[in-house]
Amino acid sequence: MSQGTIPARQRRSQQTHKKLLAALEQLLKTKSFHDISVAEIGKVAGVSSATLYRRFKNKNALIPVLFDLQKRQMEQWVDSNHANIELGTISLKGALQRIARIAVRQLIEQRHIMKAISVLAHTRPELFGDEWQSREKRTLEIWKILIAHYENEITRTDKALAASSLAYFFNTIFVERIVFHDTSSNWGLDIDDEAFADEIADFAYGYLTANNQ
Amino acid sequence: MSQGTIPARQRRSQQTHKKLLAALEQLLKTKSFHDISVAEIGKVAGVSSATLYRRFKNKNALIPVLFDLQKRQMEQWVDSNHANIELGTISLKGALQRIARIAVRQLIEQRHIMKAISVLAHTRPELFGDEWQSREKRTLEIWKILIAHYENEITRTDKALAASSLAYFFNTIFVERIVFHDTSSNWGLDIDDEAFADEIADFAYGYLTANNQ
Amino acid sequence: MSQGTIPARQRRSQQTHKKLLAALEQLLKTKSFHDISVAEIGKVAGVSSATLYRRFKNKNALIPVLFDLQKRQMEQWVDSNHANIELGTISLKGALQRIARIAVRQLIEQRHIMKAISVLAHTRPELFGDEWQSREKRTLEIWKILIAHYENEITRTDKALAASSLAYFFNTIFVERIVFHDTSSNWGLDIDDEAFADEIADFAYGYLTANNQ
Amino acid sequence: MSQGTIPARQRRSQQTHKKLLAALEQLLKTKSFHDISVAEIGKVAGVSSATLYRRFKNKNALIPVLFDLQKRQMEQWVDSNHANIELGTISLKGALQRIARIAVRQLIEQRHIMKAISVLAHTRPELFGDEWQSREKRTLEIWKILIAHYENEITRTDKALAASSLAYFFNTIFVERIVFHDTSSNWGLDIDDEAFADEIADFAYGYLTANNQ
DNA sequence: TATGAATGAGGTTTCATTCAT
DNA sequence: CATGAATGAAACCTCATTCAT
Q1: CA–CA dist A15, A55 (Å, integer)
Q2: Cβ within 8 Å, pair D207-C208
Q3: Within window 43-62 on B, which residues have Cβ closer than 7 Å to strand F?
């Protein structure tokens, strides 16, 4: 349970909790967290703003919960087999493309919540707990496994560094285009999201396999 | 002249204009635009907040000017020979490293103002005029020139796409690490900024030269 | 039974009643009635705030009960022989000293509850019923008895007035020093409470026996 | 200038300052400081509540100013010769009566503001600066002078203690009757305020002159 | 019955902006 | 022209009290 969240005993209050989060998510589609007032959230959720304060310590306490929500949504999405990668049967390039496409699709799916999280992470980093770090660690592990699997093909010598670089790269490069799609410049990239994912995969592939004589 | 800026006829008011922007820049080092009040800006600038409204239509009108300021600072920096690249005498890889390092250094230099611009671009895109697009165009041109120059070495077939991809890539990938340095996760990238720049250059180099059979 | 109190039929609810009052008393040690919320009282008492409303009409209804509680505590204290005065065996001055010391001790004992009552009496006099008046009457009677007993020694001619003056005096003069001990100025009175009581007794003794030619 | 007060440069703002204080004083006639909202003060003063925050750091910052106001009002009153005591030409008893009557009259004059100060001193002592102490000191000096002047008549041996006791006594004993006149019990003291002052003077006189063999 | 849930009304404070000197 | 003064609108939050389980 995120910090600042007040445990809900009854079913009614759990519903309220959900309704509030759903309202927040809804509102985040059109404005930033800062520009959404507690009253607004309450209104959309169909409860009074005082009720929000029964479930959350204060407005900021919604943020970690938003974070949790994003995580849960992502896990659901992963579980539903959208994110299956069988390293055994696929080339390195294919794997990278697969990953890039999955990342893009998932980011599209969670566009609004990710926008909020991204802005908040840049604006109010102090409101994020350290759960962030555990996600980071797990991601890094996955990249290490992938690199080990394609060891022969990869020319990078410092494998740990390569894992870190890839993790940074994949977690950074899509957000601008996918999440801030409507607001940020597109640099004449008039290709669809799938093709974009492939381009990105090419960066990663090139990085891993280039001749570094 | 940015929109919302009121032309300053007299020298005194030009100074006021400068003082206000300097104050804003100063304040952006410690908090976000949203968290800086007009009164505060006036105080640091040594003028009253009402005076600000004689130079700017409203608080938001500062943003395009901030943007201009960043541009001017960058141009100064470029002019001062920090950003000289002689394509003739240098390998593709060397050129990319050079560019990456320059980008990093320049971002470090303008860290605070870039943070503000980045957040605002994500939060209030409507406040940015279309000058953005002309920068975008010029950047794209530069990449096209570079790609043409190393044509033989580059395996990418769609040169225009490659230019766009590189432009997107270089304008996106550094910000997280350099500008949001203190707030965002570093994915175990325990290398210094120069080495980081080189890693990034490797992505670009790999992308441009990989065997795409 | 104080007004606003809902009669408690069952033993369980009597205990709840007690627990609530004990909680209030406890909380009054650190903050004023106004600053104590119903939720807080409930929490300390170990019941929900809704339960409080089953025992009391509203928050204010606690006040008369607080008053009762103070009375009961005082009576207990008196019964336990702390307050025994045998007029027969003691001088007027001795009697006054005795009374002053008793008053001081009792005020110390009930410091917190008396602080609450004092502030509330000044702030919300309408919340006190008229039971106050019966206490007043009884006190006055006692002073009349004392004055009658030492008739010869006393130079005051208007005995009724003397009784009233003494009653007012003794009921007023200690509170500032004893009850608001930590908050109010002490006028350089660097003596202990017992010596203070004696000083006060001297005022009363002087008043009663001075040469009023 | 009291802490939390923002200096007023223009005449208009000084007027606003005055209007706000006058409004507060007015409102204190019917309710306690705690029960008066900032909005209310603004309304009565004829300004918006935001304006109050231009002159005062916050609501609490009004309190020291209230304190100042009381002091200034008192000084004015004293200067207007209401409080003249010529020790040379008057008996000890006469002097004490004079003082008691003056105290009573002055308290009547400042009844409402004194009620507020008294309640606040008991409720929020932390909001009072240490100016209190300097007043205390001066009062003590005056009593020492008086005692020295009537040295022969006075039977008390510890003169310093006597001064402290009198200071405490005179600063405590009137408030209940005069300031909380309408709310507190009167113990059958059916005499007018002047006669009441005389009774009180008798306590002091008796204290100072009693036979302490 | 007891209580967790819910809320309406209200409180203090901030701030971008306009007014008046 | 520059600025101190003023403000309307809105923000977050609290709490005594009622509702519904």
Answers
A1: 11
A2: no
A3: 47-51, 53-54
Average pLDDT over residues A51-66: 95
Query: Which CATH architecture group holds C1-61?
Result: Orthogonal Bundle (1.10)
Note whether D1-61 and D80-209 share their fold: no
Find out whether D86 and D51 touch, Cβ atoms under 8 Å: no
Q: What's the pLDDT band for B213 if we cut at 50, 70, 90? A: very low
Per-residue CA distances from C95 to B213, C98, C150, C207 (Å)? 114, 5, 10, 14
Residue ranges per structural domain of chain C: 1-61, 80-209
pLDDT of residue B117: 95
SS3 B131: helix
pLDDT of A93-143, one tens digit each? 999 999 999 999 999 999 999 999 999 999 998 888 788 888 899 999 999
- What residues are paired with A5 via a beta bridge? A56
Range D154-178 average pLDDT: 97
Residues of A in contact with B143 (CB under 8 A): none
Residue length of chain A: 213
pTM for this predicted structure? 0.89
CATH architecture of A80-209: Orthogonal Bundle (1.10)
Q: How confident is the model at residue B204 (pLDDT cuts 50, 70, 90)?
A: very high
Is C59's CB less than 7 Å from nucleic acid strand F?
A: yes
Shortest distance between the Cα of D15 and any Cα of chain C, in A, equals: 30
C108: its two tokens = 């110390």
Mean pLDDT calculated for residue range B41-60: 95
Residue with smallest Cα–C1' gap to F21: A10
Q: Please give the span between the terminal C-alpha atoms of chain B, in angstroms, as a whole number.
A: 50
Spatial distance between the Cα atoms of B29 and B114, rounded to a whole number of angstroms: 10
